[in-house]
Design a protein that fits this description.
The chain contains seven helices and ten strands. By secondary structure, the chain is of the alpha/beta class. The strands form two sheets. A five-stranded parallel sheet has the order 3-2-4-1-5, sandwiched between helices. Strands 6-7-10-8-9 form a five-stranded mixed sheet, with helices on both faces. Bound molecules: S-adenosyl-L-homocysteine. S-adenosyl-L-homocysteine binds next to helix 4 and strand 10.
Length: about 250
């Protein structure tokens, strides 16, 4: 069996219990060496064969999986955060489908959630933002024109921008042109939940300078929105006057 497993954002104890068990039972692990914490490999048995996908092509990855299948081995494909976000998981699944090979998918904690925890913040405080836009700047990988950062900025919602720390100036300009004030709070979270994590609190206008001053151009999220100001109304859910399915409120 092949299991795609989310490794979590970095800290080795932020993998799911299921993911950890799958690593313990694995005969073969193909892990994304560029972003996955190697400490996670300590969950594997001593006979487990380990491959670093950072040095492999898609075809080579699929070959290792197919070889494992022929021998009846348990293969884990370990990918950073949650594999459904910029995980290039679709193309792997497609190739396995074409070969009639079955697989499962164990989710993980995305770095965007690791970063929120590090920031001790809620992305969706009432009356501030009730939506989170997950996106990236266009680099060598194209982004559909309808999904430009500029167009999303018009919503003024919370934004989590992946894969773009090396383009902080472009991101900052696009956000401002799209409608955010240059004073909107922003954060750069580098290696969220890793031991060398860095959190830089800045503004939309200050993103490029903050990234440059701290030497950050990869493995970071750019996070934008008024939620970072820790403002917002309290929720209805825990309001004493509010009645819902599980609790009767004081409101007549
Ligand atoms: N599937 C992953 C994202 C993979 S794309 C997830 O769910 O997190 C790789 C990008 O994710 C990096 O360029 C960076 O923007 C972000 N990233 C991954 N791990 C990170 C971490 N620990 N801290 C901050 N950003 C991270």
């Amino acid at each position: 069996m092949i299991n795609f497993v989310g490794a979590g954002p970095g800290a080795a104890d932020l993998i799911t219990v299921r993911g950890m068990r799958l690593l313990e039972e694995a005969d073969v692990v193909i892990y994304a060496g560029s972003l996955v914490n190697p400490k996670l490999l300590e969950y594997t048995s001593k006979d487990c064969r380990i491959y670093d996908s950072a040095k492999m092509t898609l075809e080579e990855i699929i070959d290792v999986m197919c070889e494992g299948e022929k021998k009846g081995l348990n293969t884990v494909r370990l990918q950073t955060g949650d594999p459904s976000i910029y995980g290039a998981i679709y193309e792997q699944m497609l190739m396995l489908d074409e070969r009639g090979i079955n697989y499962k998918f164990c989710p993980g904690v995305s770095s965007m959630f690791g970063a929120a925890a590090s920031l001790k913040a809620e992305y969706t405080p009432p009356e501030v933002s009730q939506s989170v836009i997950i996106t990236r700047a266009e680099g060598r990988t194209p982004v559909p024109a309808k999904e430009s950062i500029k167009s999303f900025a018009g919503h003024g919602a919370t934004m989590v921008i992946f894969l773009s720390a090396g383009m902080a100036e472009q991101v900052s300009n696009d956000l401002i042109e799209g409608g955010y004030s240059d004073k909107t709070p922003a954060a750069i979270v580098y290696k969220a939940t890793w031991e060398d994590e860095k959190i830089i609190r800045t503004t939309v206008g200050g993103l490029a300078q903050s990234a440059a001053q701290n030497g950050i151009n990869k493995t970071a999220l750019i996070i934008v929105g008024e939620f970072l100001n820790k403002t917002g109304a309290r929720s209805k859910l825990y309001d004493p006057s509010f009645t819902h399915e599980y609790r009767k409120g004081t409101e007549k």
